[in-house]
């Protein structure tokens, strides 16, 4: 939880006034369900500068936080026949519940001083894994180099890595640890992140970057999401 009393109200108001002075009447409409194009361009620039991720604005979805990103990903994975997702143990109860709400069975995989046990991941048989490699929750460990190489080999065999970039930028002793996704085989990884540890929770927001070779997909009949972002027209590459 950030220091709520330290919220920069004056700077926030100046930024709002500057944006409102430049927008057109059309900007107050519903717009793209992926998020405002200008915001997605800004997100792409931030990802490149700070997390070493090369993406296009059309590959980014603005969401109301990681929970919503996981809800959308759950639909995509089930549409591709993936109904079991490995999760870190210990790990985030909320993240696990989001996947279970989406109809997935979550499979616990142990975490030790080197991060997630990739050997145990391989043995559990799940086709996808949700993990926090740069700053594991709740232990704080980082996925070590050998485990990262094992994870890449697992992904090359058809595994899907869902990387929650939890608190990765909050480091004072060194630059943030690199993400796993840029090194993963094309189309085998996706990233969800939220700055909710910096602004107050009432302003919850986040982004989700899809794999570059995702293919068209139509959400199931009756699918509903929040007004912040609708289901994207993509599916996991087969």
Structure summary:
With 238 residues, this protein is an alpha/beta fold. The chain has 6 helices and 8 strands.
Provide keyphrases for this structure.
30% helix, Aspartate Aminotransferase, domain 2, globular, 16% strand, 238 residues, alpha/beta, single chain
Number of helices: 6
Instruction: Tell me about the largest β-sheet.
Output: 8 strands, mixed
CATH superfamily of the domain at 65-209: Type I PLP-dependent aspartate aminotransferase-like (Major domain)
Low-confidence stretches: 212-238
- Kindly state the percentage of residues in helix: 25-40%
Secondary-structure-based class equals: alpha/beta
Strand content: 15-25%
| C-alpha end-to-end distance | 39 Å
CATH topology tier name of the domain at 65-209:
Aspartate Aminotransferase, domain 2
CATH second-level architecture of the domain at 65-209 = 3-Layer(aba) Sandwich
* Mean pLDDT across residues: 78
Helix and strand succession? HHEHEHEEHEHEEE
How would you write the strand order of the largest sheet?
1-8-7-6-5-2-3-4
CATH class of the domain at 65-209: Alpha Beta
> What radius of gyration results from the CA coordinates?
18 Å
Shape: globular
Number of distinct beta strands: 8
Please write out the topology:
Layout lengths: L8 H14 L14 H15 L8 E4 L2 H14 L4 E6 L3 H9 L3 E8 L2 E2 L1 H7 L3 E4 L13 H12 L3 E5 L24 E5 L12 E4 L29
Parallel strand pairs: 2-3, 2-5, 5-6, 6-7
Antiparallel strand pairs: 1-8, 3-4, 7-8
Helix pairs in contact: 3-4
């Amino acid at each position: 939880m950030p220091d709520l009393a330290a919220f920069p109200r004056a700077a926030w108001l100046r930024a709002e006034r500057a944006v409102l002075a430049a927008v057109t009447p059309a900007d107050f409409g519903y717009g793209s369900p992926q998020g405002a194009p200008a915001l997605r361009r800004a997100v792409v620039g931030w990802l490149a500068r700070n997390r070493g991720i090369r993406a296009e604005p059309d590959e980014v979805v603005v969401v109301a936080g990681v929970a919503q990103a996981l809800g959308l990903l759950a639909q995509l994975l089930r549409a591709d026949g993936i109904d079991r997702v490995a999760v870190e143990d210990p790990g985030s109860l909320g993240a696990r519940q989001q996947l279970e709400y989406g109809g997935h069975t979550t499979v616990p995989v142990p975490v030790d001083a080197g991060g997630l046990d990739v050997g145990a991941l391989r043995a559990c048989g799940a086709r996808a894994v949700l993990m926090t490699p740069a700053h594991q929750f709740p232990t704080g460990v980082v996925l070590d180099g050998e485990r990262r190489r094992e994870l890449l080999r697992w992904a090359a065999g058809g595994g899907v890595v869902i990387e929650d970039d939890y608190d990765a930028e909050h480091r004072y002793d060194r630059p943030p640890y690199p993400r796993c996704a840029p090194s993963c085989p094309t189309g085998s990884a996706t990233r969800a992140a939220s700055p909710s540890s910096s602004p107050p929770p009432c302003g919850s927001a986040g982004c989700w970057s899809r794999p570059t070779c995702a293919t068209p997909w139509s959400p199931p009949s009756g699918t509903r999401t929040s007004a912040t972002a609708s289901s994207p027209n993509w599916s996991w590459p087969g």
